[in-house]
Amino acid sequence: xxxxxxxxxxxxxxxxxxxxxxxxxxxxxxxxxxxxxxxxxxxxxxxxxxxxxxxxxxxxxxxxxxxxxxxxxxxxxxxxxxxxxxxxxxxxxxxxxxxxxxxxxxxxxxxxxxxxxxxxxxxxxxxxxxxxxxxxxxxxxxxxxxxxxxxxxxxxxxxxxxxxxxxxxxxxxxxxxxxxxxxxxxxxxxxxxxxxxxxxxxxxxxxxxxxxxxxxxxxxxxxxxxxxxxxxxxxxxxxxxxxxxxxxxxxxxxxxxxxxxxxxx
Length: 265
Ligand code: HEC
Ligand code: HEC
Ligand code: HEC
Ligand code: HEC
Ligand code: HEC
Ligand code: HEC
Ligand code: HEC
Ligand code: HEC
Ligand code: HEC
Ligand code: HEC
Ligand code: HEC
Ligand code: HEC
Prior knowledge:
Number of helices: 15
Number of domains: 3
Radius of gyration: 34 Å
Structural class: mainly alpha
Oligomer: single chain
Low-confidence stretches: 1-33
Bound molecules: heme C
Largest sheet: none
Shape: rod-shaped
Number of strands: 0
């Protein structure tokens, strides 16, 4: 039924086209005026020239109708170009179905990003895939567009899906410890305020605040440097400050000084 309709349209189109061509030839003194020009398309096709004009981007500026549509029915049965005619030679151009995302060649960057997309994105964003693979986490188990949604370039806030560790934290703070594509690899700079650690370690925080020693004025990350779970040794900073006999007899600093957070002496 559809096929019949199409054949019928084709017949009518061919008729109209041939009539138009005959007209063009008839009124012209030169035979080459019968060749279809880019300016002619709009006489019969309203939508495509408008789409190209509005959102054609490089398909408006770098190519024209006839660069893509070589020939015209009925002379040429299939006037639809393959994308590979002009785009080839990169992993992205090896994807099997361009129209899955580039739904309309006349508006090439009006994308539909649907389904679970990972490998498709990695044709351009290889480093992100490498990061996710090198640091296994639950973020590797969801598709890129689970977070990046259906608009290319959309970047979500962490707090869209997660609650902060404390009411004081904002979305901007998350990045001081977490990367989106390696969320369990917690690293930080040496100027991170204590309140971010205190969100989970209230005991350590309160002990330190209550301790009158000079450790009190030190930042958590001054001692626990760079990476979560890093635990320093007293000797990293103090060496062996007492007479060798004392250290030999009491190998643990803690036997006299208790803990770093609750220093006694
Ligand atoms: C005189 C009217 C007329 C002009 C001028 C014309 N076309 Fe068409 N064109 C048609 C008709 C009618 C059809 C429908 C044929 C069909 O349904 O397959 C058609 C079909 C097409 C198709 C679909 C072919 C397919 O395989 O499905 C393309 C592409 C196309 N035209 C491109 C162009 C371009 C590019 C130009 C300008 C260079 C142009 N046309 C100029 C009337 C015209
Ligand atoms: C970059 C290549 C490219 C350019 C430039 C281009 N087209 Fe197309 N055109 C296509 C492709 C591919 C299709 C097949 C369907 C699709 O992707 O929209 C198509 C489809 C068509 C169709 C058939 C639509 C249908 O529903 O069957 C027409 C008519 C058409 N183009 C006309 C034009 C006209 C007129 C111009 C210039 C204003 C033009 N095209 C410019 C690639 C192009
Ligand atoms: C006749 C050659 C030709 C065909 C066929 C063609 N393109 Fe293009 N396309 C170009 C050129 C030239 C550019 C601009 C330079 C570049 O980006 O490579 C371009 C650019 C693009 C862009 C970027 C647009 C922008 O402004 O940044 C996209 C997306 C695109 N093409 C998708 C497609 C898809 C999808 C198809 C098949 C439906 C297709 N092209 C078919 C020639 C073509
Ligand atoms: C899974 C979705 C998807 C598929 C499938 C897809 N693309 Fe793309 N394409 C994109 C996205 C996303 C961009 C980036 C758009 C931007 O930069 O705004 C893009 C950009 C492009 C560009 C412009 C940038 C460049 O690298 O030159 C071209 C050309 C292009 N695609 C052609 C193709 C062709 C040809 C195919 C089929 C072989 C294809 N695309 C398949 C999503 C897709
Ligand atoms: C054809 C190559 C191509 C494909 C395919 C592609 N991208 Fe991109 N993407 C780019 C380029 C180039 C940029 C940087 C320029 C820009 O912002 O448009 C970018 C930027 C981004 C950004 C960052 C925006 C920002 O503000 O920093 C995100 C997020 C993104 N892409 C996600 C994705 C996702 C998710 C997919 C798969 C659905 C994807 N991209 C597919 C080429 C691509
Ligand atoms: C769990 C959610 C999530 C998933 C899954 C995810 N991202 Fe992201 N992505 C983000 C967030 C949040 C940001 C911005 C914050 C950041 O960069 O740490 C971001 C930033 C980006 C950026 C721009 C900044 C940069 O690092 O270059 C690109 C490009 C990107 N993502 C691509 C991807 C691709 C491709 C995938 C799939 C392989 C993916 N993302 C999977 C949440 C996610
Ligand atoms: C679109 C939703 C979404 C966004 C945006 C998002 N995440 Fe997630 N995240 C998840 C899901 C789903 C999980 C797995 C289930 C869970 O733990 O809730 C997860 C898990 C995690 C985990 C635990 C990982 C594991 O393997 O146990 C951390 C840490 C995390 N996210 C941090 C972040 C950070 C930081 C950001 C921003 C850079 C972010 N997430 C953005 C959805 C998201
Ligand atoms: C001071 C560094 C730091 C900051 C800032 C931070 N986190 Fe975390 N986050 C961690 C640590 C450390 C863990 C891992 C705890 C563990 O091993 O169980 C974690 C775990 C998580 C988890 C896994 C589930 C859970 O609660 O244990 C999620 C989700 C998460 N963070 C989201 C966020 C978000 C969203 C932000 C920003 C509002 C944020 N984080 C800010 C250090 C931080
Ligand atoms: C989201 C909650 C969370 C945040 C924020 C957090 N931690 Fe932790 N931290 C934990 C959990 C849970 C453990 C225990 C993990 C285990 O024992 O498996 C832990 C363990 C530790 C340990 C003990 C390691 C060991 O070997 O006993 C240190 C030290 C530590 N965290 C320091 C910090 C510092 C410093 C900060 C701030 C930069 C911080 N934490 C931020 C949840 C967090
Ligand atoms: C002067 C250096 C120093 C400072 C400042 C410091 N720590 Fe520690 N922390 C240590 C050392 C050393 C240990 C190992 C246990 C010990 O010997 O006291 C430790 C142990 C820990 C532990 C694991 C054992 C426990 O007590 O729970 C956590 C968690 C911890 N620190 C969190 C923090 C937090 C949070 C802060 C900031 C509020 C902080 N630390 C400030 C040096 C320090
Ligand atoms: C990352 C370095 C660092 C680590 C690890 C560290 N300290 Fe300290 N400690 C300091 C600094 C800095 C001071 C202050 C020195 C000053 O101002 O003269 C200090 C001061 C002290 C003091 C003197 C306190 C006072 O108020 O006068 C004692 C005692 C001490 N540390 C013992 C320890 C012990 C015991 C440990 C291990 C449990 C330890 N420290 C771990 C850096 C560190
Ligand atoms: C036998 C108990 C004892 C042991 C074990 C011990 N200390 Fe002390 N430490 C003291 C006493 C008492 C003081 C205060 C009197 C002084 O300055 O000699 C002190 C003072 C210090 C001071 C401050 C010195 C100053 O000049 O302000 C530091 C730093 C220190 N100890 C670090 C350490 C470290 C690191 C260890 C383990 C390697 C350690 N201590 C082991 C008893 C001890």
